[in-house]
């Protein structure tokens, strides 16, 4: 299909909202609330904190959540890393590291094994 719009004429994209799998909305909410997220909507579950919005879909298969991930940009990643370390949720194979492409990042697994990569 051919389009008449060029890349420079396309509308600007400004936000993405990941959709993560949840085996139990209430359990997911409890886990994310320790990170400061609050409910924006119950069904489907939508959580917010600062400029981040996470949507959750009901899922009965745990292997699906274990293959879902998202990346979240963080200001002052060192403090956020310390906070997550104190909660004992940092993935043991993904501590705070400076990547070859220059970003600092670390990862955690949520209660359903969705991978969250925090970066700065």
UniProtKB/TrEMBL annotation:
The VOC domain is annotated at 12-120
Q: Which PROSITE patterns match?
A: VOC
InterPro entries in UniProt: Glyas_Bleomycin-R_OHBP_Dase (IPR029068), VOC_core (IPR037523)
Please give the SUPFAM superfamilies that the UniProt record associates with this protein. Glyoxalase/Bleomycin resistance protein/Dihydroxybiphenyl dioxygenase
Signal sequence range: none
Protein name per its UniProtKB record: VOC domain-containing protein
Source species, please? Solimicrobium silvestre
Task: Tell me the lineage of the source organism.
Answer: Bacteria, Pseudomonadati, Pseudomonadota, Betaproteobacteria, Burkholderiales
